[in-house]
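The records we work with from here on pair a chain with its fold. Here is one such record, which you should read through line by line:
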Amino acid sequence: MADVLLRRFQPLHLKLERVGPFRSAFELPLTGTEDQPANFFLLASKNGFGKTTILETVYGLMGTLALPLPS
């Protein structure tokens, strides 16, 4: 596995549960037409509904791409 090289990050679906304001399962599709990865997202809601939690989760997942793989 040391030779794994990830070239892009294209999430298709995000499921959050028991994190931030999401006590029960919350699922967010991240695809556009024909279930293809979307290039643009819009998150809109009132304050305290989890927008920052979603963005921090995606940021954390993207950060795993920068970690060196274990030897």
Remarks:
- The CA atoms of residues 3 and 69 lie 9 Å apart.
